[in-house]
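Support request, please re-run this one:
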Amino acid sequence: SHEVYISDEQLKWFENTLKDHRYEDGWNIILFSHAPPMGSGLRALQEIHVKNTCAWLNHAGDSKRRRIFHNLVNQHGGILCWFSGHFHLSHDYEESISIIKNTLPGSVTSYIQTGVIGRKSSRDNRRQSRILTGNDESIRVWTINHHISDKEIKNKLRLDLEIPTSHLARARMTAMGKDLECLRVRNEDEITPNSKEWFSA
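Re-run finished. Output below.
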């Protein structure tokens, strides 16, 4: 099967799993998929993935199938983090993490790009891994670099995102009008559209 195609059977399983683990019951779900869903806000390479209709899950399907994941996330509310790879890009891009507010109070989903380790697989010569840690208070997402030769820097964990696990804490943040971008940790390595590295991928 195609690397970004999810069958009807898998979709039904996904929907039922969400129904069985409701946001209102306190669930925080962490999800992993090869490609991200449409609407995730993660950076995609137009000339490779978008043009070839393989950027997002079920990209080649009709508009309803392409948007079903976004709609399920928004309606359910309990998917706290959604990790995906597929684009072979590093964690240093501004859009390597996208935080989207959902309908239910305090419900946010962080879409998180996961890079590659292999030299031949990287599209921008930056090789990185994500590390996920958590406790009762928060979920943290870190980056470790594999492309830097200095061992002290290479093995140093970089905090990229910290999200409160409490639904109430997140609801307070959004009710007070706090920008969800405050959950992100800005780093000096970040590549923005104004950076010379932006077009190097």
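The first helix runs from residue 8 to 20. The mean pLDDT is 85.
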